[in-house]
Design brief:
Radius of gyration: 24 Å
Number of helices: 11
Largest sheet: 8 strands, mixed
Oligomer: single chain
Helix content: 25-40%
Strand content: 25-35%
Distance between the termini: 59 Å
Number of strands: 19
CATH architecture of the largest domain: 3-Layer(aba) Sandwich
Structural class: alpha+beta
Shape: globular
Amino acid sequence: MCSAKVTEQSIARKTLKRYDYLPVDEQGIIFSPESHHIHVLNELSVIIWELYVIAAIPAEEIGKEIASAFDIPVEVAEQDVLSTINYWINVFPGKKYEETDQEESTTPNLASGTYRYHTNIYLPLIQVEVSANSQDIINDINGIFQHLRAPGEGCSATYQVLIVDDNNGQFLICLKDRLLETATSQSHIPVMVHRAITELACQHSEWVAILHAGGASYEGKTLLFPSQGGNGKSTLIAGLIQSGFTYINDDVVPLLTDQTLVPVPVSLCVKSGSWEVLDSYYPGLKRQKVYGRNNLQVKYLQPPTYYKKGTTLRAHCLIRPLYNPDCSTPKLEWLSTIDALQVIIQAESLIAKPFTKKNIHSLISWLKSIDCFSLEYSDLDRAIQCIKTLVRRP
């Protein structure tokens, strides 16, 4: 091999060694503590990684071994190896993940102002006082958090959220002097306050991951439904909790360092695309007030049953919901640990900082301890019955 190629491969290998590698069953993952991203390796990629990065075998030699094993031309195998290596070098974004010590948006002198109207929201672990100078705004907040108006047990922290009209057509949602959200209309304020309070509840505990997932319990078993936004996650949770399930959250669930889950029972946020589907489950849904902006309209549902005390839960099952209008019968398929991890990554869940092997190990260990599935369905009633059957099986 010429010296130029040796030098080039040496530089590539040093670049890849900056990534952390963890084998998971017969597959593996690589991740960068700097970029806050994870990449899954299939079985062949694991072989290439371990030979090239760990054993320092030249790419050409690896290509020959793969060509022999899979009976393909050496040139093709060698090119595949080099393409894989180049892909790994560029797989993580160049911009590093920024810690939260960057300068925060501040809005001075808000805490010292006078606010005429107030309300209190009580979650299992926190209390949030919301203040504004408009009774209509407070009435809207009370409406969407109606089930969380009574003081609960175990509140360990109190936050003050202020809603400020900047007199320029915007409303500032602030935590004392720190800007959390900006609403562009009064109907948009409840959406922003709902999101801000949810984030406060999630950030309050020491977590390994904030899972982008819905959660519900049934007959003593806790289920999680990770998915990207817009895939019917909230619709499924809304149907489940009207069918005997206890509500945890429809969008985010914190996973703590002790591998337990924290319920965040704020109201369900359902988009306009699900209103017709949920009409039979929630007869009063048509009369519910609409919030949001023109391009995103939502309604809020009060959960009939939810966790009111500061309790934590053990997950029993993870189910990736896949709505498919062409699927006549629900299809439940088992997911491996690495497949489940990929689902969590694709759902854009937030992994704890610092991004270390310990945190990733903890997440993988937790996934290994629960059953993981994928559920493809088109009919909500049938999906709910399928999930109930799954929970009840030995």
